[in-house]
Amino acid sequence: MGGMQHTHHDSAAQSLPVAVLSGLVLLAAAVGYLLAVRRARHRNPTVGWSTWRSVSFLGGLALLGAALLPPLGTSAHTDFRGHMTQHMLIGMYAPLALVLAAPVTLLLRTVTPARARRVTGVLHSAPARLLTRPVVALVLSTGTLGALYFTPLYNAAMARPAGHWLMLAHFLASGCLFAHVIAGPDPAPRRPGVRARLVYLGAAVAAHALIAQAMYGGFFVDIHAPVAQVQQGAELMYYGGDFAELLLAAALVSTWRPERRAGAARGRARWAGRSRWAGRARATGAEG
User: Fold this and answer.
1) Closest Cα partner for 148 from 164, 135, 161, 162?
2) What is the pLDDT of residue 281?
3) Considering only Cβ atoms within 10 Å of each terminal Cβ, which end of the chain, N or C, has fewer?
């Protein structure tokens, strides 16, 4: 740490076209989602589509807009506190809102059966099964933060526009993956039980806390920014990360229905008992 971090590229000259392009992409995503909702409701008026899902998706896009557009999108290039705020919004808060909007389920309801089968095939492919393993999602979303902030990787990424955008894309993709694995309503192959997912979420909380504390104390940190900025960024990561993970835990627990599982288990046991009784009855009748 040490010294004012300089913008390694002319962010002022690029801010306007980048902001316009980001805004257009976010607007296109909003329009596309709403058109898909309209089609889903038209194809199946009885089932329809939850308004809260739509609100969640639009809220996630709004969070991305706040992170990418000025003033935060500009200050993140020169101020580490702005970068960390951007990181929290893109990597934790927006992904949760986008994932809770169930975009894959919406897609499956709007495409033809043939295309739905292809989408399902992708979801059950070997790469998808690997990426949706909780440990893989944890490493990609949280484990890579150590490599980013404790090696020259962060400074190298900030040195060029392409590196910065790749870093933000990684935050968004890995954040969406982890939120999907932990609490996503979309279908996922071999998703573990709620208790196991709570364990992985706890590991993410602990890792975020350790990284933030090490950053605040200046241990192993390789960030070209003033010490005060790094420490305040670490505080943002510590408290902002805790709140985001609390929201993720609430989303996960809201899907926990142990009484339904217990009832289903009792129902299966009763069905198995009746099946065995029917088998014995048929056997007795055959012997008679």
Assistant:
1) 164
2) 40
3) C
Residue written as token pair 């997912």: 197
- pLDDT averages per 10-residue partition of the chain, 288 residues: 45 69 96 96 90 97 96 91 96 97 95 92 92 94 94 93 93 97 89 91 95 94 94 96 95 72 47 44 40
- Whether omega for the bond prior to residue 71 falls within 30 degrees of 0, making it cis, is yes
- CA dihedral over 18, 23, 26, 28, signed as positive or negative: negative
pLDDT at 150 (0 to 100) = 94
Nearest to 6 by CA among 70, 80, 87, 72: 80
CB count within 10 Å of CB 69 equals 17
3-state SS, residue 199: helix
* pTM for the full predicted model: 0.84
Q: Indicate the SS3 state at residue 215.
A: helix
Both tokens of 192, joined, read: 């573990």
